[in-house]
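The instructor's notes for this session suggest beginning with a concrete chain rather than abstract definitions. Hand out the sequence below and ask the class to guess, before any prediction is shown, which regions might be ordered.
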Amino acid sequence: MKIYKHLYQIVITSLTFSNTAWLQILRRNYVILTLLLALNFIAAAPTMAANLSNDLLKQPATEITISLGNSANELKFEPNHLEFEAGKRYQLRLTNPSQQKHYFTAKDFADGIWTQKVQAGKVEIKGAIHELELKPGAEAEWVFVPLKSGAYSLRCPIPGHTEAGMIGEITIRN
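After discussion, reveal the predicted structure:
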């Protein structure tokens, strides 16, 4: 944009004649050219985003299974440390083999990923997800792409569960 403004100033100042009709034509053409270039950039942005998401959707998802509790009703995540790489697609399988409900809560982690979908039974949910509740015997699938690197906490916020050790850590690395 600065190049065109500079070019415009050079052309206008280099003209020594005062033909106002000629100057008006130059100004109009400059405005039209600037608008066309701006529209081209605006139109290209969604196409670039669509190509990026299509590339991610074609990428096979790395599957990881996490148990929320276990059949002995121990209050823990198995495994309790998860590591992901930014820009890769993952399919997280969450299971609850215990006799009580549990939550998979990792809000900061959820803010640093792009969720493609969460599926539980015959229901598929799209959009931002911050917490999943799994009732006894439930299973869910979370497909996502990590975007922001960092270390994030995982916990089950049901009273007594966090204190009993139902915590974990999620790491996203570049």
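Then share the key points. The mean pLDDT is 84. The chain has three helices and eleven strands.
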